Amino acid sequence: MRRAGLVSLALVAPLAMGQAEPVLVPGVSQDEISIVYSFTGAELLLYGAIVYPGGVAPERRADIAVVLKGPEESILVREKQQRLGLWVNAAQARFRSAPAFYAIATARPIGEIVDDRTAAIYELGIESLQLSPASANPPPEARRFEAGLVDLRRRAGLYAEHAAAVEIDQSVLYTARIAIPARVPVGEYTAETFLIEDGRVLAAAVRDVDIDKAGFERFVATFAERQSFAYGLAAVLISLVLGWAAGVFFKRF
User: Fold this and answer.
1) Dihedral sign for Cα atoms in the order 18, 23, 27, 31
2) In degrees, to the nearest 5, what angle opens at C-alpha 158 toward C-alphas 181 and 167?
3) What is the mean pLDDT of residues 106-127?
4) Does residue 187 lie in a domain region?
5) What distances in angstroms separate CA 178 from CA 74, 90, 223, 230, one per listed residue?
6) How far apart are CA 188 and CA 183, in angstroms?
7) How far apart are CA 140 and CA 59, in angstroms?
8) Cα separations (Å) of 233 from 94, 218, 223, 224?
9) Beta-carbon neighbour count of residue 206 at 10 Å?
């Protein structure tokens, strides 16, 4: 009862203080997603309420943008070129903090909601991601590598924009759905919700989401991380045994 009272107080406190801007109260259907052998993907439901000053929603239209991203990683991108009939690494670029996964859900295309400057500030949209280049590549070459990285992750389903995935009910309640692909990386994610009106971000809220392996997959991943030498040795031995068994099978039949 005490915890419920504290939550209620936290929700009504901004109104009691007479805040001039609305407040977002977000939630997620799952704050932990487990990846097992049969995992083929999932759908994350993000929902919440918009608390307006005085409890009255304005007549003008407001938009909701929900961004799920993470984990941040340093990545080296190499460009291959064909020389003398062989494909070789010709150039490379490193990015200091690129999200391994990024998805944004809105009710309409992000370009109709905010301008380029606001999109860049809040990283709203794939084209507005700040990938933090760490290499001294010339600007045209750096942009080519950024486009290449984004294209690779788009095709893998790791970068996505869902322009009709948010519903707003009576300008107060909202729901958003984001697809989680089967190849999603494990790690800590953030679900960021933005309330946008007339191209301006009025409020923002963040919830944490954890994606991790479970069951046998978690055991293998932990074993490979903590006992890398033994894991490599076991992999070699299993390959030898399977190769020997296949040879015996085909020799008999």
Assistant:
1) negative
2) 70
3) 92
4) yes
5) 25, 37, 31, 38
6) 15
7) 45
8) 31, 19, 12, 11
9) 11
DSSP summary character for residue 209: E
Task: Name the residue range of residue 197's domain.
Answer: 14-71+98-213
Collapsed DSSP state (helix, strand, coil) of residue 40: coil
Contacts of 44 (CB under 8 A, 6+ apart): 28, 29, 30, 33, 68, 177, 178, 179, 180, 191, 209
Distance CA 50, CA 173 (A): 6
Write down the pLDDT at residue 204. Answer: 94
Q: Which residue has the tokens 């997959």?
A: 217
Tokens (6 digits) for 235: 């992999």
Residue 224 and residue 209 share a domain:
no
Model pTM? Answer: 0.72
What's the pLDDT at 192? 94
Say whether pLDDT at 11 is over 70: no
Q: Is the same domain home to 181 and 230?
A: no
| CB proximity list for 174: less than 8 A, separation 6 or greater | 47, 48, 49, 50, 64, 166, 167, 168
Q: How far apart are the C-alpha atoms of 24 and 180, rounded to whole Å?
A: 24
